[in-house]
Amino acid sequence: MHPSQDFLRGKMIGLFRLAMALTVILFGVSAPVLANASHAVLASPTSTIIVTDSSDTTPCPVSLTLRCAIDFANAHPFTTINFDSSVVAVLLQNPLPLITGNGTWIDGTTIVPRIDGAFWSGAAGNAFTINADNVTISNIKIVNIPAGAADIRIQGGKNTKIIYDYLGILPGATHCTADTDYGVLLDSNASGAGGDNNGVAYIFGNTISCHASRGIWDYFANYVGVGVDGVGNVIGNKIGTTSDGAQAAGNALGIEVEGDHLSIFGNLVAYNAGTGIRLAYGASNNDVSSNAITHNGGPGIWLGSGSGNRLIANDIGTNAGGVAVLSNGAEGILISDGSGLFLSDNLVAYNHAAGIAITGSSTHALLENNDIYRNGGLPIDLGNDGATLNGSHGSVGPNNWLKYPVVTAFSGSLVQGTTCPSCAVYIYKAVGNPAAPGGGGLFQTNVWANSSGQWSVNLPNSLTRLDVTFTTFDAGGNSSEMSPRPQIFLPLISRH
Questions:
Q1: d(CA 263, CA 288)
Q2: Which of 19, 41, 321, 490 lies in the 20 to 30 Å Cα band around 466?
């Protein structure tokens, strides 16, 4: 578990114990108000109520059903809803009431109750819909919700926390049953703000699988935020797997982002039928970092448009050691549009198509320090059409068809060459022929060219000129393909 999750869980357990020490309030009885109750993030609740009836049809206030409990919480901000040990399942007949009470916390820690739509008889809708600030849904199982909606829809408000839930699949299940279209839907009307603990939603430690469309869908949420304690918004989830992460339970698409300022950190995104993570329709200023993205039917990551997105330290198509073959069914990373992209320290291997493909009008996609090898296509492919010889295209196209560096001389470990003026040259230990499918490189070091485009470097680790390949990036942040191996030197000069 990530340290931030330990911290958050510790805070939540402490608050749970505090809540249990309060008087248990039955529906319809006035709730005691703590004199020092705070409306800050994870503020102490003013009351705790316990769901005692698993029915979805018993009228209020005859018994305290989950439906009645939400009605109560809407009228009494900062209410915690717990579950009696007898309420192992709530068999929904219709969507639960819209949550409008700020600070509502629906917590199933003691028994992890199942919210089940198998006997749903009403019109399609979401299991939970949220339109309030500081709402938490934790340790809940949600399955069998009818098609056309979401297990949890965040319609408005900010700082929703979805923590340690099972959406679309039960813990211990080995395969999918039918569930609704979306696990978590962040609606375009939801509005966050910059800074820690201030975004639309924080989604931690969940299993989100078996959905007919997307596991998580950021549908143009206005400002998702930078995350709890600066770490992220979507952290440590399993997207498309069984609860142990070992078997397939895919969504149609893992995570789709159409909004901004979402931080996707430390998740396992695997076995989804299409793309693992897709940033599209102008999604901008998002971070995708330290995720394992494997076994998806389409590209591991697809950047469809937008600007300022960053992909850092992801394992795509393999494990962290780069040994296991955990292929995605297409490119490791497909960049089909957008600009101002930064890709660093990613491991991209064994994917069925190119490692990183940059196509269309995509520009300013800067690649540095990535290890890319043994993919079905080129390690880096401008145009996604095979090796591009220097000078074979003009300057209008993916990454402006930036030329890879050319070596002009060598002497022992010293290599000299040319590239664009004042550009960076990245040196990789070559894997196979980097200008052919299956080839690639392991990053070693980098050097800067002078204003005339001249550069030189002493090769590290006893490498020779036949062991290396090179890329470059220019002042605009455009990166080239990898140079062929062995190098074709123009002119070939050997000094002794």
A1: 6
A2: 321
pLDDT value of residue 230: 52
Q: Are 370 and 345 in contact (CB under 8 A)?
A: yes
Distance of CA 113 to the CA centre of its chain: 27
**Residue 99 pairs with which residues in a beta bridge?**
130
Mean per-residue pLDDT over the chain, rounded: 87
At residue 217, φ and ψ (nearest 5 deg) are -130, 110
Alpha helices in 28-136 (DSSP H): 66-75
Distance CA 356, CA 471 (A): 13
Say which DSSP state 398 is in.
G
24 backbone dihedrals φ, ψ, rounded to 5°: -70, 125
The token pair at 348 is: 């991209």
The string of DSSP letters for 142-170 reads EE-PPSSSEEEEEEE-S-EEEES-EESS-
pTM listed for this prediction: 0.88
Residue 456 neighbours by CB under 8 Å, 6+ apart: 414, 415, 416, 417, 447
CA distance 298 to 317: 11
Distances (CA, A) of 23 to 42, 46, 120: 19, 10, 34
pLDDT (tens digit, 9 = 90+) per residue, 207-255?
Answer: 999 999 999 999 988 666 654 445 678 999 999 999 999 999 999 999 9
